[in-house]
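Assemble and predict.
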Amino acid sequence: AQSVTQLGSHVSVSEGALVLLRCNYSSSVPPYLFWYVQYPNQGLQLLLKYTTGATLVKGINGFEAEFKKSETSFHLTKPSAHMSDAAEYFCAVITGFQKLVFGTGTRLLVSP
Amino acid sequence: DTGVSQNPRHKITKRGQNVTFRCDPISEHNRLYWYRQTLGQGPEFLTYFQNEAQLEKSRLLSDRFSAERPKGSFSTLEIQRTEQGDSAMYLCASSVGRAPIEEETQYFGPGTRLLVL
């Protein structure tokens, strides 16, 4: 069954530093991968998604992710963190049964 | 485009009571999804509708749970005889519904937070 694993329940960075949130997937078929962000008391917002084609995917708010089949990874990065990036980030994969399966999430903390 | 709305935003109930949540999808979105999110976890799929037809149900959706989408517009999720384990955030999402699910973006509402005492 398809699944995703997010390494690190919390990641702390300083404002202006590189953001790296890790996601590894397990899938027996070519995966469709997503990153969502959730701000407190709000629903989830799509940051970016990988379906087919270019392996480097650019999303909103300066985030990007690279699909690496050899490493079964889809890590999320941003060159320079901003205070407003503090939120919970979820990696997700579409399963063969066409359901979104989410990871457990990574809380990003940004300090001044 | 007003986004996906959910009501109520918060619900506190006593064990054994029935509760009903409502989701209004983005206008003209044909697919509607329900998820449950517990503390420290990612959302878990419960069920989804294509127009008024309920096409998929998770094993998480016990007999106490029922979802409807009359006329293919808003949807309701009812939980009968609530248990403390039902305490969670219930999220609704919608998508256009004219392409394969994996190619579509699901737009999420703010959720309904349920606390069962």
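Chain A touches chain B through 23 residues (CB under 8 Å).
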